[in-house]
Amino acid sequence: MEKQKTTNRFQRRRTLRLTAEEDERMTQQAATAGISVSEYMRRLFFGGRPIIARTDDQTIRELRRLGGLLKYHFKAVKRTGNPATLSELDAALREIRYAIKVLSERR
After folding, report:
1. Rounded CA gap, 36 and 80, in Å?
2. Are residues 63 and 26 in the same domain?
3. How far apart are CA 33 and CA 27, in angstroms?
4. Residues 85 and 73: beta-carbon distance below 8 Å
5. 8 vs 1, 12, 69, 102, CA distance in Å?
6. What is the number of structural domains in the chain?
7. Contact assessment for residue 23 and residue 16, using Cβ atoms and an 8 Å cutoff
8. Is 5 part of any domain?
9. pTM of whole model > 0.85?
10. Please, what is the average pLDDT of the chain?
11. SS3 call for 36
12. Angle, to 10 degrees, between the axis of helix 83-105 and the axis of helix 54-80?
């Protein structure tokens, strides 16, 4: 059985002149977002899906996971009734929520 060639959905090519610094910056930003330079430029130009760094998504997921674990420990400590530990856990949970909020707003 012969494999069919898939047609390239992009049929036109445009040339863009950049300085070396601009090219480096664009390449770094695309790499940070985890997409190709072409896809990065299309999203910027046509206002498609927002460009989100993969690290931000991974960080938010990890912060939510830690928040869930902290919430579990918060309930366990609450049962024991140690007010000093409760206030420390409460402060840590507030910091995690704040970090998630800041990262979410950068999108």
Report:
1. 53
2. no
3. 10
4. no
5. 22, 10, 46, 39
6. 2
7. no
8. no
9. no
10. 78
11. coil
12. 160
Q: At what angle do helices 54-80 and 20-33 cross, to 10 degrees?
A: 40
Chain segment 36-85, per-residue pLDDT in tens: 898 888 888 888 666 666 666 777 788 888 888 877 777 777 777 777 77
Alpha-carbon distance of 94 to 77, in angstroms, equals: 17
pLDDT for 49: 64
The single residue listed with the structure tokens 């939510």 is: 64
Residue-number span of the structural domain to which 74 is assigned: 54-105
Distance CA(11)–CA(65), nearest Å, equals 43
Q: Give the pLDDT confidence score for residue 22 in this predicted structure.
A: 94
Contacts of 76 (CB under 8 A, 6+ apart): none
Q: Specify the pLDDT at position 53.
A: 64
CA count, 13 A, side-chain hemisphere, 58: 6
